[in-house]
Amino acid sequence: MTGGLIREDDDTFLTNEIRFAVASPKPTTQVSGMLRFCLALILSAATAQAENKVRIAAAANLAHVIEALTAEFQTANPDTKAETSLGASGSLVAQITHGAPFDVFLSADMDYPRALSANNQADAASLTPFAIGRLVLWTTNSQIKLIDPESALTDSHVRRIAIAHPDTAPYGSAALETLEKLNLTSKLRPKIVIGENVSQVAQFVASGNADLGFVALSLVLAPQLRDRGQWIEVPATWHTPIIQGAVITKKGTTNPKALLFLTFLQSPEARKIFARFGYHVPAQP
Amino acid sequence: MSDPAATFLGLSAPLWQALGLTVKLAAITTLILGILGLPLAHWLNTSRRRITPFIETLVALPIVLPPTVIGFYLLTAYSPQHPPGSWWQSATGTPLAFTFTGLVIASVFYSLPFAVQPFQAALRSVPVDLLEAASSLGTPPRRVFWKVHVPLAWRGIVAGLTLAFAHTLGEFGVVLMIGGSIPGVTKVASIALYDEVQKMSYPTAHAFAAVLLVMAFCLLLIVTLLQRRRSNT
User: Fold this and answer.
1) Which chain B residues are closer than 8 Å to A5 by Cβ?
2) Contact across the interface for B80 and A94, Cβ inside 8 Å
3) CATH 1.10.3720.10 holds for B16-232
4) Does the structure's ipTM exceed the value 0.90?
């Protein structure tokens, strides 16, 4: 694109470069030196894989809890470094399928890790439920009264209701099930806007562009959002439980630290952290 | 086209809807950029004010700014809880975020340099003596601009319009942040493709990506041909 933009000056630019190359005493040595430098850069990046490291791909709803988890994990295992990448579960699956260097995948549901295992990209036996998400309705519009979910959803001040993508985000499909349960789907459909994941739904509500949003309790309990607006929990019986599963990727099966992290996720310390950040924890196996 | 299960050329009706929406967005954006961008490019070329370099830099910013920066500022600006979003809300009764109008405004900002910079180059390429000859015959400046200057620079102007159109087709980050993925309103092609990848329907994603690739290639080929012709003459 920029090529087209600077075409006006292209000719002079090119000639200068050629003149420079011709004028320099040993043009070929210079070029090969530069090539070698670039190659060294690439190689150093590729070989910079320390062994005492676990790379974690985590669903967006875990944005805040994951920091506390990795901090606790590193306190317990000072010689192991935990690196986290956040994204929508579907994006992370696509990345892992195409060779992204993650050892553990913390999904927002159980289906994505299963799909990953079915494609031989993860160890099916390692699939572990580690947390149960809680769905809340959140607003930053002070005119809206949050007495119960139904009256909030039908409040006349509500113009836009944000939900996460129901096809790809478990918090989104739970939101749709809630609307279905309340018989409000067709009535509210024109007001619904879709966020790519729950974090984006939170953005829409925090900025005031959506009046109401279905988000994860973990997000509204986060320090950045804790004092903004008001929220009300959606009864867990109104939707399929949001069971979040973790799995060791194919690449992670060769890294013993991956299993170490997965075991840590089920430890009493980790379970305490999950509870503090607004998750339920599965019954102990 | 209303039956979501129907397919045409291997793509479902919702995907064609997304593609149609994208072309509509790009066409309207290009039209607005043509109307606003040409006088702006002329002003940037001729103005000797101290503020001009700052305006020119502002216009160029979207080339280097991450789309997320533009998206974030627009999301904040569109909010009906405070100005300017609240002004729009009270004037029109609807908020700007998650609307087609909101996307058009965003696209005009986002694609501005891709139109204005080629416009500037095209307008500069017209020999000054031709314009002076027109002025000396007593033609008012505005008439000289639209009747002599712009027609003489048409090749570069069409290149700029095509580039703006193509760049709007490729818009993703900004729409992701302010669109809300509403089918037929804000769910443009790049977002629909992203959703297909998210759903792991990779064959559909491949087909759709190929359609976008071919469209982008053809548009850029037009730009390249126009500019080659110009530099050869």
Assistant:
1) 63, 113-114, 117-118, 163
2) no
3) yes
4) no
